[in-house]
Amino acid sequence: MAEAYGYQSKTQKVSLKTDQTTQANFTLEEMKKGTLKGTVINKTTGEPVTGASVYVVEDACG
Questions:
Q1: Measuring CA to CA, how many Å separate 24 from each of 13, 15, 19, 31?
Q2: 3-state secondary structure labels for all residues of the chain
Q3: Given 11, 28, 43, 50, which residue has the most CB atoms within 10 angstroms?
């Protein structure tokens, strides 16, 4: 498996031979970026929640 911050991780199978070096090359694709925009709404009243904060949490891939 190859992984780098900001890129999609990639896995590939490799055959290993005794007492030999095996090389595996990976090409990783950059993760898409975007903007999050919206309003937090009170489920009961349907009104906007004043001062609400939204936190975006990264996953293991960035």
A1: 9, 10, 16, 22
A2: CECCCCECCECCCCCCCCCCCCCCCCCCCECCCCCCCCCCECCCCCCECCCCCCCCCCCCCC
A3: 28
| Contacts (Cβ under 8 Å, ≥6 apart) of 47 | 41
One-letter identity of residue 54: V
Spatial separation of the C-alpha atoms in residues 5 and 61, rounded to whole Å: 7
DSSP state of 29: P
Residues 6+ apart with CB under 8 A from 8: 28, 29, 30, 31, 61
Model-wide pTM > 0.70: no
What angle is formed at CA 41 by the lines to CA 36 and CA 46, rounded to 5 degrees?
145
